[in-house]
UniProtKB/TrEMBL annotation:
Its EC number is 2.7.7.2. Residues 23-174 form the FAD synthetase domain. This is FAD synthase. Belongs to the RibF family. The keyword Nucleotidyltransferase applies. It is an enzyme of class 2 (transferase). Keywords: ATP-binding, FAD, Flavoprotein, FMN, Nucleotide-binding, Nucleotidyltransferase, Transferase. Pathway: Cofactor biosynthesis; FAD biosynthesis; FAD from FMN: step 1/1. It catalyses: FMN + ATP + H(+) = FAD + diphosphate. GO terms for molecular function: ATP binding; FMN adenylyltransferase activity; riboflavin kinase activity. The keyword Hydrolase does not apply.
Length: 279
């Protein structure tokens, strides 16, 4: 945000409505950005730097739901490291001027890479595009960094962000999701840049419920850092597959219906998967 302005959130669906008319040119960061991990932060910060240097608006374009939900015809809704509301909050803190959220459905899934560039980048007066080295777009993911350069030639410049790794393992949402799902939350900060965090709503004395589509850590007991409206403390919690979280030793935490933040520090007696490097 520039000068304390509030981030503008713009929802788009295909076909794009005709009244879309950006006030000025922008730098656009492209990606799904689940987790907004270290590599995502590098990409978004680069876009912010270009926007400041070129005196352009700083924009981000993401999609919802995850493309896999539609392309793979998944019956169950996907779980996320950062549900949309949380992702919006992170982008706002990072100084984004406009956040474009494109509804991912069958219409957008069948859009050619060329038409995507015309409808969603050129039309929005994008002058610089910032994307990861492995960014894919368009029908069946046929578009990539090279096609982005060709299809945007004369309209915008493409900035490719290189791969970031930790101990030879690519920093990605996929790796973080694996770590969280298997309970290895103590390794997550090496990839995410912080401890994994989910929000819970208090439903009874020491029981909280995860109402949003967060990816849950593996069931079990964890050491956590808990943030309420008026206090922060460390405590052991048990999480269940149902989405319930029980604070083990402090029954009087927050009020019923209050939202509480749980930071997952370490699972008790967990062991390291062979496929992931040790911290």
């Amino acid at each position: 945000m520039k000068g304390g302005r509030k981030m503008e959130v713009i929802h788009l669906s295909h076909p794009v409505e005709l009244e879309i008319n950006p006030k000025c040119s922008c730098v656009m960061a492209l990606g799904f950005f689940d987790g907004v991990h270290i590599a995502h932060q590098s990409l978004i910060n680069r876009a912010a730097w270009i926007a400041r240097t070129e005196k352009l608006n700083f924009s981000v374009m993401t999609f919802y739901p995850h493309p896999r939900q539609v392309v793979d015809h998944l019956l169950q809704p996907m779980k996320y490291l950062t549900p949309l509301r949380i992702k919006e909050q992170i982008f706002s803190r990072m100084g984004v001027d406009q956040l474009y959220i494109v509804q991912f459905n069958e219409n957008i899934a069948t859009l050619s890479s060329c038409d995507f560039v015309k409808e969603y980048l050129i039309r929005l007066q994008v002058k610089h595009v910032v994307a990861g080295f492995d960014y894919r777009y368009g029908y069946r993911g046929k578009g990539n960094i090279e096609t982005l350069r060709r299809e945007g030639a004369g309209f915008f410049k493409v900035h490719e962000v290189r791969k970031l790794s930790h101990k030879y393992q690519k920093i990605s949402s996929t790796v973080i999701r694996q770590l969280v799902s298997e309970g290895f939350v103590d390794i997550v900060p090496k990839y995410l840049g912080k401890h994994y965090e989910i929000m819970g709503i208090k439903i009874s004395q020491n029981v909280f419920y995860v109402a949003e589509p967060f990816l849950l850590p593996k069931s079990g007991v964890y050491l956590t850092k808990i943030d309420t409206v008026d206090q922060s403390f460390f405590e052991f919690c048990r999480i269940f597959e149902s989405g319930e979280i029980v604070i083990i030793n402090r029954p009087e935490v927050a009020k019923v219906h209050d939202e509480v933040s749980f930071h997952w520090l370490k699972r008790i007696e967990s062991t390291l998967p062979a496929s992931v490097g040790c911290s």
